[in-house]
Design a protein that fits this description.
62% of the residues lie in helices and 0% in strands. The protein has 249 residues and is mostly helical.
């Protein structure tokens, strides 16, 4: 008997793995498949974020009844869990290079590419969305990059989390910039050009010598208030530098 408190998404996540409950349903062939439902959800989230994802809207997109969609996926939370695992399964995970620095960088760069392609992954909170087969493959691949470098098991896990966190932080910063641009209708450069004189008037009489000097240099280099991609590269380089020191010890 299935535990009534068991996560309803788990059998769907591992469908096709030979696990109990993964067998195809009997009867007429359905109009769409679970994968079709999940892919449609991914398309919606990729286009406009998780806030725009609804089961009713998904049913309309698929051309099925509003309640029919629930025969494929129990609810929105379970759908998001399936979407997360589905997109993780589409990332190519090549063999790790021999060079230690490149192995570490590859872990962060792969995560950066995933979060960049699907920023809504950063919005998935409060759900156990990383327990599917593709997420497990991802974690195994990440750990393989740090296996044999002299780290114990906890250090391996924390190293992977550190590299992944570097990537997610950079993509989150970039998304904040894009949301601000979408909300204002102006690029960062356009916003600063429009408000530069006003800010100068409002800040008159206050002295910020360091902020003024550094901010001006950064603004001229970035042509914006920030440079998420450059920050990612800088942060990753410093993180890997530190990890290499740890490994040498």
């Amino acid at each position: 008997m299935t535990d009534p408190t068991a996560d309803r998404a788990l059998p769907l996540l591992w469908r096709g793995s030979g696990a109990e409950g993964a067998a195809p349903r009997r009867g007429p062939r359905p109009k769409v498949s679970i994968d079709d439902v999940v892919d449609a959800g991914i398309e919606v989230a990729d286009a406009a974020g998780l806030d725009t994802l609804s089961m009713r809207g998904l049913a309309q997109r698929l051309g099925i009844g509003a309640m029919t969609v629930y025969t494929y996926v129990p609810g929105r939370d379970e759908l998001i869990v399936l979407m997360t695992d589905q997109v993780l399964g589409r990332t190519e995970r090549p063999a790790h290079p021999d060079d230690t620095r490149r192995r570490l960088e590859a872990v962060a760069e792969a995560a950066y590419a995933e979060y960049s392609a699907h920023p809504w992954l950063l919005e998935v909170a409060g759900l156990r969305a990383w327990l599917g087969p593709h997420a497990a493959d991802r974690y195994e691949w990440q750990l393989t990059a740090v296996e044999g470098l002299g780290l114990d098991d906890l250090e391996m896990d924390r190293t992977v989390a550190l590299l992944d966190g570097c990537a997610s932080s950079a993509v989150r910063a970039r998304q904040e910039v894009r949301l601000a641009e979408r909300s204002s209708g102006l690029t960062e450069l356009q916003w600063w050009e429009a408000n530069y004189d006003l800010l100068g008037e409002l800040m008159a009489g206050r002295s910020y010598p360091l902020a003024g000097r550094v901010g001006t240099a950064a603004g001229e280099a970035y042509q914006a208030a920030s440079d998420p991609e450059g920050q990612f590269r800088f942060s990753l380089d410093r993180i890997v530098d530190g990890l290499l020191v740890l490994l040498d010890r």
